[in-house]
Records
---
Amino acid sequence: MFKRQVDQALRQYLQEFSAVAILGPRQAGKTTLALQIAESPSVTAGGPPALYLDLETPTDIAQLSDPSAFFAAHADRLVVLDEVQRMPGLFAVLRGVIDQRRRAGARAAQFLLLGSASMDLLAQSSESLAGRLAYVELGPFVVTELPADQAAVPGALWLRGGFPDSYLARSDAASLRWRQQFITTYLERDIPQLGPRIPAQTLRRLWTMLAYEQAQMLNAARLAASLGVSGQTIARYLDLLCDLLLVRRLEPWARQSSKRLVKAPKVFVRDSGVVHALLGLGSQHDLLAHPVVGGSWEGWIIENLLACAPPQTQASYYRTAVGAEIDLLLELPGNKVWAIEIKRSSAPTVSRGFHLACDDVSATRRIVVSSANTKFPMAGDIEHLPLLLLMQELLALGAVGA
């Protein structure tokens, strides 16, 4: 059984907000989680079961031909609306329904919204449901969600990525086939349904180029030249992939500094399994022999850590023109500044540039994460922490602030 770590926050929000949205890429497990929670006694509170509608299904869409009347007929039930961005007109209706029920003293949990494209959902809901809606992001599996025996040796999660059907596939080959079909479906069906008219082959080439340059600083001009498009077009395509929660921009640290700082963001394909599928890497042997192995490892570690960081965390990287660098800089509640160096070697060492960078940002904690599974001190007030332990510490910080 895989318990998603947003489970507790989601249940809490359902007690406090009229509507809650679960955002995440397709096939990350949003529907499974939503139905598990919606059917639990703590949410139904002894009342009628939740009502689930999939807004990609014609029969369910037909039930909402008069949404106000439909919601009035089911006022005593939690309504789960899947792929809600498909019906943007619903947000204005939901606002009126929620406000009317509030005046009548309705309980908090009324609607649970699921969306796989944050750009539409966030834009519409922020205008229509401000103060009425809480957000939870659900990504693919991370290490802290695995059973203990699998979390101790998470190499399969790194290779296959965290999409449930990919991670749980019967073999590495079956997992790779699933991911290849996932990529094709996104390019040929899902993205065109969202409206942008982007040639699927062009977007696939960009996605693949980003996989080759995993964890590298963005060079939009080089990408534009390779694809034969403008820099503005590259920016638009990247915005789309980020809004779909498939790609992450990690921005550079932006504070007053006497040093010349690199200002380009780093770009990551967020799921390591998708990185490997785009590059045709189907086995651990293929991955370890490929030049992208270091960037893939760095991106995978960063995604796992950010999935556990408290919501108020500011994440960035730090690099000067002369090479002083911090792979991941977490500015946490309570004025904590954690500088994290990511190494794939089980016998990690750090450069002088890391120490200089930590001094520049006034890091309150200096941490190295590697493939080693033990905690030990390193020179220069640096501590080595296994990934799982560091993730658990971040989760504990979030729990303290809850």
---
Amino acid sequence: MKSFILPLATVVTMVVIAGGAGAQAPAGVGTEEFGLTPRQLVTSIEKVEARISRCMRAQGFQYIAVDYMTVRKGMSSDKNLPGVSEEEFIGRYGFGVSTMYTGKPPQLAEGYSPGKVGLGERNVRIFHSLLPTDRVAYNHALFGENIGATFAVALETENFSRTGGCTRNAIEQVFKPEQLNASYYNPKDALINKDRRMKAALRYYRREMRKAGFDYDHPDQVEPDFRDRLAVLTRGGTILVEQMTPEQLSALEKLQDYERRVAAKNYNLQEEVFDPVEAKIEEEMYARKVK
């Protein structure tokens, strides 16, 4: 029998139509990060920032609590550069994980830095006013051992496991214990994954990724994998690029090349298959019947 390959647009149409309407989201499961509602997200950000400020003050440092819009701007800066589309960004920098790594504190970043944006301009100025030795102590108090784990970045990636210092202390007071684990999964996404249309889309995604030589079952697995790989290579982000040995630099370059290739394939499959199906299911989940 002669085999043939359906166009991606046909695959998406078949998957969306085949499933029918899915179940509505249970009460309490929102559309934002960690399954929060928009109002809960605003409140949580404000509470965390206020607690970070108090914690830093107790340790002898000034930190101005950042407002919701600034943190949100940091979150939306992920894979975003002025004048560069997301597709172009992915092609040049992958996810911006290993390709943008310098090992420097976010406040000293030049150009792309969601972490720096999320800290707010006033806190960046405070950091720059400090002596070099005090900068190290300041960031240790604010971030702990991993200076790249800012609140905005951790919130956007839905992974608080690398946070430390006053940032972690504040998060622990606001978010639930289970949300602090690296294994925590957004309940909204978990519900979407149970829909048979998404299961069909994920089978297609898994098959196409393996054809390309990449061992991933879900788009949500990809970027965290690169963050884990980079953390191993850089000892949790504590090694400056200019301090790397030739072997470390070679390993970083290989990781960067791999990240670009995986990100490009992942992006294409998300845009053409995964995202349309996810959007349809989410629309149905949060639809409200008009009486």
---
Amino acid sequence: MRLEWTDPALDALEGIRDYIAKDSPYYARRFIERIFDAAGKLQDHPRMGRPVPEADRDDVRELIYQGYRIIYRTLPDRIQVVTVIHGSRNLAGEEIKPWEVG
């Protein structure tokens, strides 16, 4: 199955990279590479993540990687990563949910 990264997800990764790069550009780059590697496993196992509790939908799932939530949608022809957020962030109060965009 094809893996697709949305613009908001790529923007989120850029923000994470920039934040980590303040201390170490090397580790920032490595961390982002590992996020891409973790999400890449979804191509063969799209349901390996758990359902996102705030979504109450089976097609919206997440992988947890080192304290970050890689949130994605399973679609008939692809997997779409919609955002990457810190694990402590609760999306229940958000007016527009990341999986509703696009």
